Amino acid sequence: MLAMKLINEVLKDTTEQNDTLDIYIKDAPHSDTTPQEWVDNKTHLYVVVFHFTNVKNPYYAHSYYIDTVINSNNQGLCLNGSRWNYESISEETYERVKNFLRKFVLTNQLNIEDSKIKYIDERYIYSYGGRWIKNG
User: Fold this and answer.
1) Distances (CA, A) of 90 to 3, 6, 17, 122, 125
2) Contact of 47 with 63, CB cutoff 8 Å
3) Residue ranges of the domains in the chain?
4) pLDDT tens digits, residue range 22-69?
């Protein structure tokens, strides 16, 4: 496989509950249960990880296939729907994440399932320090 660009970049953001996050892309874990269609079409190869940095468990994170996130029309994202530990990101943070993923997909010319991605949302620009900020 070709060396992927941007895969070592990390977005720094927070949940709506003010937990700090490192958001990054990594290879998706595939196994014998991976749908053959995904293997044949070379989709679902990467996940976006929402790694919590200010919690007791240093490994605590949630991940989603980038194919799922890019094609989502959701306004924000629920990371954990537990009534005791509800965790979510805002619409603005979710748009930054999707734009980060679009840039990764376009830069590396990846095949994304059902994707119509042909742009990077110019309303968001990349700033020094690994954080996406709203333009204007």
Assistant:
1) 32, 23, 10, 19, 18
2) yes
3) 11-134
4) 999 998 878 888 888 888 877 788 899 999 999 899 999 999 988 888
